[in-house]
Design brief:
With 202 residues, this protein is of the alpha+beta class. It has a single domain, classed as 3-methyladenine DNA Glycosylase, Chain A, CATH 3.10.300. Strands 1, 2, 3, 4, 5, 6, 7, 8 and 9 form a nine-stranded antiparallel beta sheet that branches. Helix 3 crosses helix 4. The longest helix has 8 residues.
Length: 202
Amino acid sequence: MPPHRRAFFARDAVVVARELVGATIAAPGVRLRITETEAYKWPGDTACHARSGRTARNAALWGPPGRAYVYTCYGLHQLLNLVTGEDGMAQAVLIRASEVIEGLDLVCARRKAPPGPTLLAGPGKVGQALAVDPSMSHRSVLRGGRLWVGPGTPPRALLAGPRVGIDYADPADRRRPWRFADADSPAVTVRRTLRPWRPDGG
């Protein structure tokens, strides 16, 4: 299913997170290939921002699917999430890392960093490259908008493992293997906790 259609996002966040690896995400002057994602979904996930209910900050998280949810982390980093699942279910996929396809000079200028495999290895770096901020929450990420997701190059192999930076969550939620990455890409964070993903879950 192509990621530029609403039906792609109107599915379980874990499935969408897995299938977004290799997809492209673009903003004016910049096009990236997604190399790492994380799924968050409520109810039942204490790592999800919906755990305390609906607020002005997390309202975009509740849908409809195919929209952006951008929040500021540590008062510094702008983190881009793509809303998934049924409308009102509070699910999203965090874009953790990417590779630059187009706009390398602009990305390096925004990041104040030279080209290299870790240029966009981290969700704050991705947000900086795309110049997102919380005002972009609720905006569609379907083709035609300022920020849009489209087909890309699927990975030959996937890695999966626990999510990163969620020490506040319950232990069982910290262990969920809801982070996915391109096994062949150097633009992946905390690789040591990832293992080959198998469709049978083994």
